[in-house]
Amino acid sequence: MMEQRKNLRFHVQFRSSFSSVGVVGGEGDIVDLSINGCRVESPTVVQPGISLEIQIATKVPELAIHIQQAIVRWNRGKQFGLEFVTMAPQEWSRLQHTVKQIEMEPYERDKQAAKTDKSA
């Protein structure tokens, strides 16, 4: 039985780096993202239950989103799921903004395509 997600997750391709004091450190690709968590593809094995600090490199690289604490909820093969627990208020608003932008992208593309069709 799959647990129901509270928030929509969006397919993304962001680089990330993560670490846990004295336990694990590594890099991976965030392949889906919501305002509550993400799924990471990484060769680094992490155990469910551990707490990670994570940096998410969004499309604006110098504005990586820093999440102070994220809990590993599951791992399968080279993927694991994180639930975001602690982040600074400005990071939280940047995360919300990033998710909103991703959510709007298909509509923006459709609008651009419609404009292009009309001008042809």
Description:
The protein has one helix and six strands, in the order ββββββα. It is an alpha+beta fold and 120 residues long. It has one domain (10-119): Beta Barrel (Thrombin, subunit H), CATH 2.40.10.220. It has a six-stranded antiparallel beta barrel. The chain is elongated, with a radius of gyration of 16 Å. The mean pLDDT is 84.
Question: What shape does the CA trace take?
Answer: elongated
Order the strands across the largest sheet as they lie in space. 1-2-3-6-5-4
The average pLDDT score comes to 84
Which CATH first-tier class would you pick? Mainly Beta
In DSSP terms (H or I, runs of 4 or more residues), the helix count works out at 1
Summarize the helix and strand pattern as letters.
EEEEEEH
Helix content: 25-40%
**Uncertain segments of ≥5 residues (pLDDT<50)?**
none
CATH superfamily: predicted glycosyltransferase like domains
CATH architecture descriptor name: Beta Barrel
What proportion of the residues form beta strands (DSSP E)? 35-45%
Structural class: alpha+beta
Summarize the structure.
The chain contains one helix and six strands, in the order ββββββα. The chain is elongated, with a radius of gyration of 16 Å.
Question: Keywords for this structure?
Answer:
120 residues, alpha+beta, Thrombin, subunit H, six-stranded antiparallel barrel, 6 strands
